[in-house]
């Protein structure tokens, strides 16, 4: 069946927030009592799973909700510093023009997401935001129900290992982008349905899949 719904992650997928994260993470670490990230640690962490990252940085799991709330607040304050990747709006518009419903599932707040997306926010039919670190599967299921589509017609597109894991747990296709937080090799190792090296490849793949069906 053709893809009728594309569920996007925001940070690292549509929005170039990794530089902001690197500038901010050690302030958050000091505030919440986990290990600081050294420059020499970054590449190794980009190859690790989410659980491995939490373990290596000794992040107290019980503090995750408070950490997430604090990070969302900081991200809102820094919204003007975080731009969309080049080609995002054109890609989203191509999908919408070809009849693909667009959804956004992100750990960020809806207000922050809409501000980052700007005019492109109007292209999205569904927002389900403030996802917990491992809470995307439930949000995927909720968005799919709202969209009224079959699982085989859905693709989730993100930049982290947990995005692939979430899609697999729900039984939908997954696409991984190579310009975000996780290293491309770490994403490819999980065998996602699609790996995107350039923004324009997303619309090409989704629309080609629709025509093929």
TrEMBL record:
Coiled coil regions, renumbered to chain: none
GO biological process assignments: DNA repair
One Pfam family it belongs to: HAD_2
A Gene Ontology term for the protein's cellular component: cytosol
GO molecular function: phosphoglycolate phosphatase activity
Gene3D superfamilies on file: HAD superfamily/HAD-like, Putative phosphatase, domain 2
PANTHER family, per the entry: PHOSPHOGLYCOLATE PHOSPHATASE
Protein name: Phosphoglycolate phosphatase
Protein species of origin: Bradyrhizobium shewense
């Amino acid at each position: 069946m053709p893809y009728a719904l594309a569920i996007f992650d925001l940070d690292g997928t549509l929005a170039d927030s990794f530089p902001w994260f690197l500038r901010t993470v050690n302030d958050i670490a000091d505030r919440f009592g986990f290990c600081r990230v050294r420059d020499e640690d970054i590449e190794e962490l980009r190859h690790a799973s989410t659980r491995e990252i939490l373990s290596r940085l000794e992040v107290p799991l019980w503090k995750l909700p408070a950490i997430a709330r604090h990070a969302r607040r900081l991200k809102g304050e820094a919204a003007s510093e975080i731009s969309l990747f080049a080609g995002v709006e054109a890609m989203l518009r191509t999908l919408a023009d070809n009849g693909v419903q667009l959804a956004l599932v992100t750990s960020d707040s809806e207000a922050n997401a809409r501000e980052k997306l700007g005019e492109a926010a109007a292209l999205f039919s569904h927002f389900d935001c403030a996802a917990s670190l491992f809470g995307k599967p439930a949000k995927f299921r909720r968005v799919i129900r709202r969209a009224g589509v079959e699982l085989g017609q859905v693709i989730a597109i993100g930049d982290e290992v947990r995005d692939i894991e979430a899609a697999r747990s729900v039984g939908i296709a997954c696409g991984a982008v190579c310009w975000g937080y996780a290293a491309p090799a770490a994403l490819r190792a999980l065998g996602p349905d699609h790996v995107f090296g350039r923004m324009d490849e997303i619309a090409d793949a989704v629309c080609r899949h629709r025509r093929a069906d």
